[in-house]
Amino acid sequence: MSKPIPVQCTIVSDVIQTENSDLARELYNQGNYGVVDNNKVLLSFLEAFYLVEKAKIVVLDSRCKPVSEEKFLTKAKRKEKKFWMKYCVFRDLRNRGYIVKTALKFGADFRVYDRGIKQGEDHAKWIVYPVYETDVMTWYEFSAKNRVAHSTKKRLLLAVVDGEGDVSYWETRWLRP
Known about the structure:
CATH class of the largest domain: Alpha Beta
Number of domains: 2
Structural class: alpha+beta
Order of helices and strands: EEHEEHEHHEEEHEE
CATH architecture of the largest domain: 3-Layer(aba) Sandwich
Strand order of the largest sheet: 3-4-2-1-5
Oligomer: single chain
């Protein structure tokens, strides 16, 4: 059985744009990656790096030559200071079968849909804040994050990344005694 041909992509400003193909749109339809725009799928750097690691896409440079994983990672880290920490969380959640989308409008890094739920079918279950295990958070910051989760009817998930890139999750929610 032959290995599937990866979808070709290019870097366009702050997103990774796929070719206009059925295979590219299948990434969106089957895996809920990115957003469709003019028959192309626009991926975040996090989504794209994950799909590069999975050999589902290949990112091409301006000369149509494949960009290595290392070079792509370097570009992503330059675009976003805490890329690797966020990527560890994104990869872990996707590997566990969750749909992960941005949550900027909620003031968080990610919103996460329960397994088997696609965006648009139901609301996200959690908003996620990735943090390094050595980070310090005040009670005020913690309370603010919890309030955002509560006001958006989601659960707060702190994703704690250790030095090896492993992730532990801490869920918090308001309780009325």
